[in-house]
């Protein structure tokens, strides 16, 4: 999948076991010595099958990541939503420049005058404004910051 | 801050696992070996990071398009300041909403102060859901919501997650 193509819906290529595995792996991953074997036991799968399926789902980008999800704020870092208004003819070039910043954790094109929305993840709170300034310098376009003032709910699970 | 003492181990665990857990039989043992600590010490610390909310959860992050959620709608709402927290709690509790945050307005360009993410299998499905939510919101909090919009994503440009540096 090229970075700017519209992602395909490949859900038809997943079998029921893949879906069950994705759903289980969005829950609590065991902290045991053989967690993939433990996950497999819940689904009637061998450890090797769990690992092989997981590798395939990651390679196919059905899963973008497998591991701990951090709230970096809790150890002194910061996440911040940001948006830019990018002239259509420059969109691809600006997207490349923005994505080069390691602080850009994820980035979406959205249908709006503010057409690029991304999340900055930095090790220190002041890193957000600093990174925004560097992106502005690199692109010549303003970056609007939308820091989280309050979180009401976050549930990062989607039934596959 | 992340520079000294006990917090340094948290930080080293973040750096070692932010790209993902190793896909091996004993991933915690493998990470512990890389960090030069025992598996028990690592697991104890990961448990503590879960309790403190440094780790939200451990597991798989699906590409929502790839599992059939092709419509990713960021719904945004302009809600009176005195009511926004009550509305936010209410919106966040709805089953359709996966994330809900209050954020600052950027006047005059951006009047919305409440963000709620809704995933669905089509844009029409998400729009229908938001119509219904808006109607219920108006019934529950009359006049509180002055304007709303929904921004659909048309491409994932990047989705790597957190990447903090390896150097202290």
From TrEMBL, chain A:
It comes from Aromatoleum toluvorans. The keyword Zinc does not apply. Pathway: Porphyrin-containing compound metabolism. This is siroheme decarboxylase. It is an enzyme of class 4 (lyase). Residues 80-151 form the Siroheme decarboxylase AsnC-like ligand binding domain. InterPro entries: AsnC_trans_reg2, HTH-Siroheme_Decarb, NirdL-like_HTH, Tscrpt_reg_AsnC-like, WH-like_DNA-bd_sf, WH_DNA-bd_sf. Its EC number is 4.1.1.111. SUPFAM superfamilies: Winged helix' DNA-binding domain (SSF46785). Keywords: Lyase. It catalyses: siroheme + 2 H(+) = 12,18-didecarboxysiroheme + 2 CO2. Belongs to the Ahb/Nir family. Residues 18-62 form the Siroheme decarboxylase NirL-like HTH domain. The keyword Lyase applies.
UniProtKB/TrEMBL annotation, chain B:
Its EC number is 4.1.1.111. It is an enzyme of class 4 (lyase). The keyword Cytoplasm does not apply. InterPro entries: AsnC_trans_reg2, HTH-Siroheme_Decarb, NirdL-like_HTH. It comes from the Bacteria. Residues 67-158 form the Siroheme decarboxylase AsnC-like ligand binding domain. It catalyses: siroheme + 2 H(+) = 12,18-didecarboxysiroheme + 2 CO2. The keyword Acetylation does not apply. Keywords: Lyase. Pathway: Porphyrin-containing compound metabolism. Residues 10-56 form the Siroheme decarboxylase NirL-like HTH domain. Belongs to the Ahb/Nir family. This is siroheme decarboxylase. It comes from Aromatoleum toluvorans.
